Each structure stands twice: as structure tokens, then as C-alpha cells.
Amino acid sequence: MSTTVNADSTKPVRSTNTFAVPPLASGKRSGKTVNFNLKLGVSQTQFFKGVNTATLGINQSYLGPVLRAKRGDKVRITVENQIGVGSTLHWHGMMLPASMDGGPHQEIKNGESWVSEYEIKQEASTLWYHSHQMHQTGAQVYYGLAGLFILDDDDSHQLGLPHEYGVDDIPCTIQDRRFKRDGNLSYIDSMHDRMMGMEGNTILVNGVVTPVLKAQRSLLRLRLHNGSNARTYQLAFSDERSFQVIASDGGFLAAPVTVKSLRLAVGERIEVLVDVSDRKVVQLQSQQSSGGGMMRMMSGGSEPFTVMTIDAKQVKESAHTIPKTLRAMKAIPDPKDAIKTRQFDLQMGMGMMGGGFRINGKSMDISRIDFEVKRNSTEIWEVRNDSPMAHPFHVHNVQFHILDRNGKKPTQIESGLKDTVLVQRGEVVRIIMTFPEYSDSKIPYMYHCHILEHEDQGMMGQFVVV
Ligand code: C2O
Ligand code: CU
Ligand code: CU
User: Fold this and answer.
1) The last residue of a domain, from among 295, 311, 327
2) Which residue has the CA at smallest separation from atom 3 of ligand 1?
3) Same structural domain for residues 79 and 209?
4) Which end of the chain has the lower number of beta carbons within 10 A, N or C?
5) What is the chain's alpha carbon radius of gyration, rounded to the nearest angstrom?
6) Interface confidence: ipTM more than 0.95
7) What is the span of the domain harbouring residue 100?
8) What are phi and psi of 273, to 5 degrees?
9) HSE (side-chain half, CA atoms, 13 Å) at 175
10) pLDDT score of 341
């Protein structure tokens, strides 16, 4: 038995682990096409010194490289699967033809390759990619099949924001994991994990346990990404300093929004600017789960835990300042232009008679198309949650706007482009979106709860664009 593994302890881990910046894959360019090669493989990772943990990885032992491309580029991504079972790779947040989406209909059999090719038609943003294998998404992401996808556009470098990758523009994929005494990951140990989703007691950032980032510049841009299976984070700094939110899932906000804390649900990305010119050592912490229901509150308490440490003792003066404005926001589609309003009721049955995980009474069936939407049309979706816990609702192939939460306008942070929205228990969240023009096939896109165990157990549906 190893003593270095934080197997049962619920105490925060004090770590001196060095922050890891994921390798950047810029791809091989030929004309307008950028070629990426990704290989899904089985591996071992040392999260704790001298302890091997069985993992899955993409071109490396755990997680994958950060892909990067620009609006107008054509990307051609060859994905090879060598993990021993079927898998997929889905481009979360991307607007693209359904056949290229990497959802459950684009399974890659073990030993085979799949080519996903599409043009980037959306603005600068931080997207991500992950396995979407039917019934296996939770396990495959948990063991490591995920990574970030950064999009640039012509304006995004003109905003005066920190943009030196890994120096002052830093991706942070936040995940919680649970380790067994032998150092391996444990995945779903109880009915509780199955119902509430898999939460761990050890925090990883880019695959490193509660790392220490030695800041190099006095103004940092963090691309915060919740790559967890189920946990919602309420993030704040240990000294309660304020910081600026500059972007949500689908791109920049109109102007930076100053906050002291923010909520990040599974699947969401939020970019922030943090001024560390005071040269302090400060922790980025999370309050014990805010998104959960009664069971989480019982197991939680309000003690914050550390996500990562920023050590700013050695910073050099940044050449950047916090801009006053970012960019003109895309106009929110006018609700009067919506040709259809649809209702989505998120349901989870507790116990034997509960009926399981459903949307509008139905569990996911890969052979059932739930509805059709018209290309270029605008729709309002009303997502209702009368279940005992919060669910992050995600839609493929669109970036939407939140119209309201229980009739109340969204906060400034939530008024930008989104592809995932947390729906609290007792809430009705209305979103509005215009579907892109793609209608190349009968292949459906997914909408689902992004708590991966809920998705795997059926809280998912399918639509086609016609
Ligand atoms: Cu992040 Cu259906 O996916
Ligand atoms: Cu997605
Ligand atoms: Cu859910």
C-alpha cells in the first residue's frame, strides 16, 4: 500500500507539483487545411511519485494536446483508436456537419481510424474535445480521453489580451478524481456515484494534482475549463481578490466583468484575467459543490478546497492591461423570430421504481430521432428541472444565448455565447438559438445533461437539422 495516495482522506492535498501546460498541437498546414493526428491509447500515468495509474490518453499518457485553429481554416483531424474498445472523439462547442461531430454515431472501432474534416466558421473561443462513446463516455473521459481546442480569429489578437501560450495565456482543465489504494483510479463505487455522478476527492489541473503555477507575467489569462464528470465548482481566490471574466463557452463578452467568484459547471469554459502584480502566493479554491442537491450538501460542508496555487513571486511586468471593452456582441436573436418553442423536462428516477434518467419521459435511444429543426431557423428551448439536483444542459452544433432563468435575465457572465448551461433544481432556463445551415445528412446531433453518468444512463436525446 502506498502512503502517497490520498485514497480516503477528504483533507485538501498540499502539493508542490509543478503546473503542466499541455503541449500545443498547431497541426501541419497545407494551404487552408490544417492537419492533426490524434491517437487514443492505453497508458500509465504517475499522478503520485512512484505510483503508476492506468490511464487513457491522446498522443500522451493522460488527456490530449491543445488543438489550435483559426476561423476560416479547414481542419482535417485523423483520429486513430488503440484503446482496445470502441471510442469516439466529439468536438464540444463546434458548429459543424453532423457526420463530423464525433458523437455516438461516429464510433471508431478499436484499431481503426476516422477522419473529421470541417471548416471553422465561428469566432475565437475555448472549445474542447472528448470521447462520446455510447454508455462509456463517463468512464472514457474519466480515464483521460479529453483535451482543449482553442479557436482564434482575426480580431482576437487585436484585443491587447495576454496571448503567449503557456506564458500568460494558460489553459486549465479542472477535474476531480478518486484513487484506490493501489494507485489506480476508482470509477463508480456506489449507487450514490451512479445517481449523483462521479465526484472525486483529488483535484487535477491538466492532469497534475493541485499544481503550483509559477507565474511569469503580472497579468494572467486563464482558460478555465471544467472537464470533470459531475462536479460544479464555485471558484474564488484564497485572498478574495477580484478578477475579470472575458469569455464564456462560445467567445468573448462585450466587456470584462469584474467578479470575486464564479461558477463553472461540467463542460463549461470561462476565460479570466487575473492581476498578480502584488507578487503573492495565492490559491484558486472551490467552495464545496454549489450545484448539487441535498445529498451533496450532506457530504460537503462549506470548507473550500484548493484547485491550484499561483506563485507570483517572480513575475515580470506584463505588457498588457485589462481592456475596457472586448468586442461588439452578437445580437441575441429576437424571441419574436423564434418559429418554435420546445420544452425539455430533465428527469431522474430515484430507486428501483424511479424510471431512470430521462428527458421528457424518454431515455436515450440511438435509433430514435426525437425531433427535427429547420436549418437557419431560430428556436427557443425551455429546459425545466424538477429533479433533486442540478444538471448542466448541453446542445451540439450551436452556440446559444440564455434568455432567462425563472424569468430573470442572466448575469453578465452568462449573457455571452454558451453551449452548456447549468439548470438548478426548480429552475426553468430558456435559451434561444439559430441553427447553422448544415443539413448534410440524416445523422443526428445530441442534446444532453453533461454529468457524464447521467448522459450514459439516458439523459440524452437526438435531433436532426433539415
Ligand atoms: Cu461535451 Cu455531447 O458533449
Ligand atoms: Cu458537445
Ligand atoms: Cu444530470
Assistant:
1) 311
2) 92
3) no
4) N
5) 21
6) yes
7) 24-154
8) -110, 130
9) 28
10) 98
Compute the average pLDDT of residues 22-39. 94
pLDDT band at 184 (very low <50, low <70, confident <90, very high): very high
Please write the tens of the pLDDT for every residue from 71-91. Answer: 999 999 999 999 999 999 999
User: 446: Cβ below 6 Å to ligand 1?
Assistant: yes
Q: Are residues 122 and 177 in the same domain?
A: no
pLDDT, position 439: 65
Residue 411 burial class via C-beta count within 10 angstroms: exposed 0-12, middle 13-18, buried 19 and up: middle
238 CA → ligand 2 middle, Å: 32
Amino acid at 419: D
339 and 408, same structural domain? yes
User: Which residue, judged by its Cα, is nearest atom 1 of ligand 1?
Assistant: 92
Query: What are the φ/ψ torsions at residue 383 (nearest 5 degrees)?
Result: -105, 120
Q: Determine the residue type at 196.
A: M
**pLDDT tens digits, 87-106:** 999 999 999 999 999 999 99
Averaged pLDDT score across all residues of the chain: 92
**Cell, residue 302:** 462549506
Residue 444 near residue 369 (C-beta atoms within 8 A): yes
Q: Which three cell numbers stand for residue 272?
A: 479570466
CA of 101 to the centre of ligand 3 (A): 22
pTM equals 0.95
